[in-house]
């Protein structure tokens, strides 16, 4: 934080002090105060629309609100129901599997490709663009729809497997495989962490590698002892952002299953279930409680990550 | 907050080294290119297949793995265009309305807030800045139910207002953060010079700082374009009237009603829906890549 808020030397206020008299200085400072708040006015209003709903949803989480009747306070009832709600537990399972399989794979692929791309290769910009493009499209309805047909019974994936005499499963309609198609889709969008990795790799001074190779360090040793520690903050950053993002997956599950989370709830993402509860069954108290549970899950995972980062993230100061 | 310091820290270090000399033997370079090309091909194949399928008769689509259509069929586009309640350009225009207002709103409101955070002195600035960074990580669904209630009380359901108005209130902390980073890099003397020449804070902002922030604004505009164009959840929640559907909703309606038989036309409209993103991507790559390298935006 300190870096971001550090004040540049020779600020306007300081300069006004040098050039102006007592009265002018006071005026200018007051003007600056007032215009500072004026510039932030839209943001203040926006914050009201964030803070009020934030606490309102906390309150609603303890009520039975259903959009049509006044909310009644029900204590912890929503949370108790949650732990006996099989669909909720299923949606947690789906979201966890999706996150803990696809995030490590896509980060590993992103890092690997970034390493191959990083140094001394022509055409970097072209490769980078080609790999990055899918990450802009991965969340669009068109691409999730496309995925549904690519993995369809007679889609191109099974067509391709057929060339080798393999009879592929019914990916989209088989509960065992439906989620894996979405994991593939998420891995397909590894381009955005890759670009961040590339930017990080560029910051590693080349002389470290020169020194290491003079000392006879192998490529693996160089990667293990130079690259990895120096880009560990970037890995950490990517990990946090990808985790937070994938816990909140919605469109993929919705479009793949036509809004149901099927087959057999195998693509019932947490946010999809939240949507069904809140906006098709109008159990908004329950939906708010669900939102807060997810917020807590995300907060816990982020906190664990921050604590664990002390042991593996290296800040080069 | 170490997490968010990171891009700044890297930025303040020395400039990235110039393009390195080629490394490795021609042999290893060749194998690297080979791997990269293969991976690239696998990644692009679904997109190319989508485009080529949009020119194939529906019956051919799943019979041919190849990319080059044996029988060209342009009627998919004609059929797809008129398959829903409204011709497809209505949905394109609907999406465009939401996108344009969102871009304008994001640029102005976020630039105003960023200017205050980056270059002004006032009580509570640090506190507000910390609050702003906090909202960066706040998952949006926590606010969902109360915001829905507010918007429905205001009578905004089935209008674009819930999708547009929040963008005029600097609710997208990512863009504020991006612009703060950018504005901090501009020399402070600019403001002082403008002040001496008699510019008030607003004129300084409008005439001096904004023109210098065009790259950051371009990044904001492109990211807003892409995320708003793809946005599915918001419209799903707030837009029921089919005539007001944005492109993603129209596509979903297409899939629900015709998806079993009219693959060709559906793929054609899918191509139409992602074409603007690809276009913007090609035009604005530089800003996109720099943008995600500095803030980690998706």
The CATH superfamily of the largest domain in chain A is identified as MetI-like
Number of domains of chain A: 2
Radius of gyration of chain B: 24 Å
Query: Could you estimate the helical fraction of the residues of chain A in percent?
Result: over 70%
Structural class of chain B: mainly alpha
Number of strands of chain B: 0
Largest interface: A-B, 120 and 116 residues
The unreliable regions of chain A are: 1-26
SS content category of chain A: mainly alpha
Q: What is the H/E string of chain B?
A: HHHHHHHHHHHHHH
Q: What sequence of helices (H) and strands (E) makes up the elements of chain A? A: HHHHHHHHHHHHHHHH
CATH architecture of the largest domain in chain A: Orthogonal Bundle
What is the helical fraction of chain B, as a range of percent?
55-70%
- The best one-word shape of chain A is globular
Strand residues, percent of chain B = under 5%
Could you give the distance between the termini of chain B? 19 Å
Give the CA-CA distance, first to last residue of chain A: 15 Å
Beta-strand segment tally of chain A: 0
Main β sheet profile of chain A:
none
Question: What can be said about the biggest beta sheet of chain B?
Answer: none
Question: Could you give the topology of this structure?
Answer:
The complex is a heterodimer of chains A (317) and B (298).
Chain A: H1 2-5, H2 12-19, H3 22-39, H4 41-60, H5 77-82, H6 86-118, H7 124-137, H8 141-150, H9 156-163, H10 178-188, H11 191-202, H12 206-214, H13 219-247, H14 251-257, H15 270-280, H16 284-312
Chain B: H1 2-12, H2 26-53, H3 75-81, H4 88-119, H5 125-136, H6 144-153, H7 161-164, H8 173-184, H9 189-196, H10 201-212, H11 214-230, H12 233-238, H13 247-258, H14 263-295
């Amino acid at each position: 934080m300190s870096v971001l808020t550090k004040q540049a030397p020779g600020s306007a206020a300081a300069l006004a002090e040098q050039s102006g008299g007592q009265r002018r200085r006071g005026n200018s400072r007051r003007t600056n105060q007032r215009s500072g708040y004026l510039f932030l006015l839209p943001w203040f209003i926006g914050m009201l629309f964030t803070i009020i709903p934030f606490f309102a949803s906390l309150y609603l989480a303890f009520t039975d609100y259903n959009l049509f009747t006044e909310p009644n306070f029900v204590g912890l009832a929503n949370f108790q129901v949650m732990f006996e709600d099989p669909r909720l537990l299923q949606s947690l399972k789906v979201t966890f599997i999706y996150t803990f399989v696809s995030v490590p794979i896509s980060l590993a692929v992103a890092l690997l490709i970034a390493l191959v791309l990083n140094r001394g290769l022509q055409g970097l910009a072209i490769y980078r663009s080609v790999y990055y493009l899918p990450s802009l499209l991965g969340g669009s309805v068109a691409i999730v729809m496309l995925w549904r047909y690519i993995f369809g019974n007679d889609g191109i994936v099974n067509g391709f497997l057929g060339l080798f005499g393999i009879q592929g499963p019914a990916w989209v309609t088989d509960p065992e495989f439906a989620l894996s198609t979405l994991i593939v889709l998420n891995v397909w969008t590894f381009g955005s962490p890759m670009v961040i990795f590339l930017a990080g790799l560029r910051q590693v001074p080349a002389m470290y590698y020169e020194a290491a190779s003079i000392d006879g360090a192998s490529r693996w040793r160089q990667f293990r002892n130079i690259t990895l520690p120096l880009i560990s903050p970037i890995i950490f950053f990517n990990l946090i952002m990808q985790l937070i993002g994938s816990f909140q997956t919605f469109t993929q599950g919705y479009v793949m299953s036509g809004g149901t989370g099927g087959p057999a709830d195998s693509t019932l993402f947490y946010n999809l279930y939240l949507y069904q509860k809140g906006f098709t069954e109008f159990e908004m108290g329950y939906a708010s409680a669900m939102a807060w549970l997810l917020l807590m899950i995300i907060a816990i995972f982020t906190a664990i990550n921050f604590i664990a980062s002390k042991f593996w993230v290296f800040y080069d100061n | 907050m170490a997490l968010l310091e990171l891009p700044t820290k890297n930025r303040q270090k020395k400039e990235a080294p110039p393009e390195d000399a080629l490394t490795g033997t021609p042999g290893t370079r060749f194998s690297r290119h080979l791997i990269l090309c293969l991976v690239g091909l696998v990644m692009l194949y679904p997109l190319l297949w989508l485009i080529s399928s949009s020119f194939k008769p529906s019956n051919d689509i799943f019979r041919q793995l190849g990319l080059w259509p044996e029988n060209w069929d342009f009627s998919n586009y004609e059929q797809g265009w008129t398959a829903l309640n409204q011709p497809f350009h209505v949905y394109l225009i609907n999406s465009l309305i939401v996108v344009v207002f969102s871009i304008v709103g994001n640029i102005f409101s976020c630039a105003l807030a960023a200017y205050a955070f980056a270059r002004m002195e006032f009580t509570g600035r640090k506190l507000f800045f910390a609050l702003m960074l906090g909202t960066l990580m706040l998952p949006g669904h926590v606010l969902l139910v109360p915001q829905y209630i507010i918007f429905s009380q205001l009578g905004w359901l089935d209008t674009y207002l819930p999708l547009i108005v929040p963008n005029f209130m600097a609710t997208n902390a990512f863009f504020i953060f991006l612009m703060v980073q950018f504005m901090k890099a501009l020399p402070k003397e600019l403001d002082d010079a403008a002040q001496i020449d008699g510019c008030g804070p607003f004129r300084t902002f409008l005439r001096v700082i904004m023109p210098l922030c065009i790259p950051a604004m371009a990044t904001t505009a492109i990211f807003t374009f892409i995320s708003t164009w793809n946005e599915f959840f918001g419209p799903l929640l707030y837009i029921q009237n089919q005539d007001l559907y944005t492109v993603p909703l129209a596509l979903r309606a297409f899939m629900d009603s015709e998806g079993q038989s009219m693959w060709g036309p559906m793929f054609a409209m899918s191509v139409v829906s992602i074409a603007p993103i690809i276009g913007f991507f090609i035009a604005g790559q530089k800003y996109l890549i720099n943008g995600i390298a500095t803030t980690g935006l998706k």
